Amino acid sequence: MNKKTIPLLNTHFPQLKLFNRGKVRDIYEINDSLLIIATDRISAFDVVLPNGIPYKGTVLTGLSEFWFKYTSDIIENHLITTQIEKMGNAVIAQHKDVLHGRSMLVKKVEVVPVECVIRGYLAGSGWKEYQKTQSICGIKLPAGLKESEKLPEPIFTPSTKATTGHDENIPFSKVVDSIGKKLAEELKEKSMNVYLNASDYARNKGIIICDTKFEWGITKDNKTILIDEALTPDSSRFWPLEGYMPGKPQPSYDKQFVRDYLESIYWDKKPPAPMLPPDIVQKTSEKYLNAYKTLTGKSLI
């Protein structure tokens, strides 16, 4: 591996105030803004794996920036800049070699504690729930749907935003109870609008966005804006349109490939996670890079 392909697993900037270290992102506080650094860490089943995926953080940041800009005419978002020289901070500038391409300076907001999931197709936990109850998050669906089948229309299936452990699917009524009807309806409508716009674009590029997860924040002047990441292989299921066939799992551009490998070795999904073999790391990196190139028309390497 050359220097560029050695995954960045951790950042350590004692001169900056650490705000939060998540499964993938290290977040630092810069005055009234946040510096979000996407590392190359990868998690599966809510456990961070010991080895990272080359270029993953760059793909997450690049795709988020692409989608924030693409959807900016329909929804405001938290992105200020991804350009190191425009961040106006000496410490960031000093470490530009590490931070370039994987960092976003964003507005600091009050995070709404709901994961806003939009499903356009039947897969993952939604497929498992449908097989048991013919519904997802309390939404009744037609009988006889196949795995990976396109739903009659996309559905909003929110989940809790867990700080530890697993997010849990919840009915819309629980969202209303938690944050109020007005904000709950607003999140549902805005999440659906972003998904529909993005999925139309992606389909024209040869990618099906099976499902995706959005996060929202409230600004000081009480605006609801899109935050965190947007429509990346970490927060979405991306399938190739070519060869799409309902009735079975689909090949993917996202980390489902890693989950499938971990299932195949019968890992108990508890820490510590096993090391990924070099071929799985390389193929996963290629999937992330391909997703970026297919959607944006640009190559990262």
Reading off the top of the CATH hierarchy, the class of the largest domain is best stated as Alpha Beta
User: From N to C, what is the helix and strand string?
Assistant: EEEEEHEHHEEEHEEEEHHEEEHH
User: Shape, please?
Assistant: globular
Number of strands: 16
Count of discrete alpha- or pi-helical segments spanning 4 or more residues: 8
Number of domains: 2
Determine the fraction of residues in helical runs and give it as a percent range: 25-40%
Regions with little confidence, pLDDT below 50 for 5+ residues: none
Q: How much strand content do the residues show?
A: 15-25%
CATH architecture annotation of the largest domain: 2-Layer Sandwich
Query: Termini separation (Å)?
Result: 14 Å
Q: Supply the CATH superfamily name of the largest domain.
A: ATP-grasp fold, B domain
CATH topology of the largest domain: D-amino Acid Aminotransferase, Chain A, domain 1
- How would you sum up the major sheet? 7 strands, antiparallel
Helix/strand/pairing category: alpha+beta
Description:
- The model has no long low-confidence stretch (mean pLDDT 94).
- The protein is 31% helix and 24% strand.
- α1 runs parallel beside α8 (278-296) and α5 crosses α6 (181-204).
- With 301 residues, it is an alpha+beta fold.
- The protein has 8 helices and 16 strands.
- It folds into 2 domains: 3-108, Phosphorylase Kinase, domain 1; 111-254, D-amino Acid Aminotransferase, Chain A, domain 1 (2-Layer Sandwich), CATH 3.30.470.20.
- The strands form 4 sheets. Strands 8, 9, 12, 13, 14, 15 and 16 form a 7-stranded antiparallel sheet that branches. It has a 5-stranded antiparallel sheet with strand order 1-2-3-7-6. The protein has a two-stranded antiparallel ribbon with strand order 4-5.
- A hairpin with a 3-residue loop joins β1 (17-21) and β2.
- The protein has helices at 56-70, 90-94, 96-99, 124-133, 172-179, 181-204, 256-264, 278-296, and strands at residues 17-21, 25-30, 33-38, 43-44, 47-48, 79-81, 103-107, 110-111, 114-121, 135-136, 139-140, 150-156, 159-160, 207-218, 224-227, 236-240.
